[in-house]
Amino acid sequence: MDDLISVRDLERRDFEEIHAIADLYASGSRKNNLHGTVALAFFEPSTRTATSFETAAKLLGMNVVGFRSEEGTSVSKGETLGDTVRMLDGYSDCIVMRHRFDGAAKFASEIARHPIINAGDGKNEHPTQAILDLYTIRRVFGGIDGLTVGVLGDLRYSRTVNSLLLALNKFKPKKVYLISPPQLTLRKEIDDELEYSREVTEDLVSIIQEIDVLYVTRIQKERFPDEYEYEKVKGSYKVDHRVVSKMRKRSIILHPLPRVDEIDRAIDSSPKAKYFYQASLGVPVRMAIFERILGERK
Amino acid sequence: MSESGLLVRKIKEGTVIDHIPAGRALAVLKILRIRGDEGIRVSLLMNAESKKMGSKDIVKVENRELKGQEVDLISLIAPQATINIVKDYKVVEKRKLVTPKMVRGVLKCWNPTCITNNDPEAVSRFTLISEKPLLLKCNYCYSYTMEEQVFQQILGE
Lengths: 298, 157
Description:
The complex is a heterodimer of chains A (298) and B (157). Chain A is an alpha/beta fold. Chain A has twelve helices and nine strands. Chain A folds into two domains: 7-126 and 281-295, Rossmann fold (3-Layer(aba) Sandwich), CATH 3.40.50; 127-279, Aspartate/ornithine carbamoyltransferase (Rossmann fold, 3-Layer(aba) Sandwich), CATH 3.40.50. In chain A, 37% of the residues lie in helices and 15% in strands. In chain A, helix 2 (48-59) crosses helix 12 (282-295) and helix 3 (81-91) crosses helix 4 (104-111). The longest helix of chain A has 16 residues, at 12-27. Chain B has 157 residues and is an alpha+beta fold. The termini of chain B are far apart. The interface between A and B is medium-sized, with 21 and 18 residues.
């Protein structure tokens, strides 16, 4: 593994190996074993992803340089992405990049000599989040095959949804429900790539009893072409006690976070609410990703 | 002699683009950036009879050869077309077009937030998904650019 740009580039074996390494870091049985420098290049804001990457790099024994926002960098003076990448490439062994434009990570990987890790590119992909999502499912259920997954919310603009759905191509889910208001359905180019059984619906309650994993996403307000379109769908779905009470006994709720109003805070205390547990696994998963990418280059 | 042969006479030097799907000759002229004020003689025949295609368009451009990018674009919108290079009234080279599996630089990705539409260094690159109807997938953002969007770009609509 060199760059990590899209889950399309990973095989099932890659997911399983990263998950197995993440187990070692999560249990504390593997410690820091890398050195060198990681550059964070967050052209778009991030809380969890940037912090977990930085924490993971530091726990592994690496230096961290770079930026978490364009402000105060030469990007705000008009420096091109290519030039910023060349500069960071000269200072580091790996660049973790988030950018508002779709395909930016791939473009950067064609410029940089060192590996690029895509930490989110526009509405396109967020591959490390998908590795983390599947890791959480595996930790709870012991595996991913045979489960019924419901993906609820903004399927049109959510990069975490794209990466999760494409990553599920490498496994054997029993069925995937794509649940969204009609304006936010999955884009055809993603749907055309999916290889497993799936069903599109607007009605969460009618299928909730079949679902093992309910993956909820917020409406990606910042990716809407205009405010009016956003206002039309704002608040159009919500996971609350009424929904949770109908869920299967062993089922869980995941969310890549941040949430807005799509999950009622009253259900945070439910044993089904696994989104903060999911976020907590971000560090060992990203340690494992660093090890897979940088360990092989030693 | 075919009807088209009667309607459009032979050229001495230049390029004949034959077997263009009927109705697409104007798009071919757009690709060649021919507006009519270049001072070169251009013959255009639309909806000519064709044994192979039923009906077809033909474009004859005198004293002009095609550039690589022009051929790439014509092959996308008229994959069955043939390009004949004419010298001294004789066809000296006959090329059958092949739709390229990869299209680089000549078209814009239809996704406005694709990196290739927002960075001066990033050059568009597409993989051909389907020839009929034409469907391209961006190698950067994985968005589709569809046939009507390709035509809109070529015709400048």
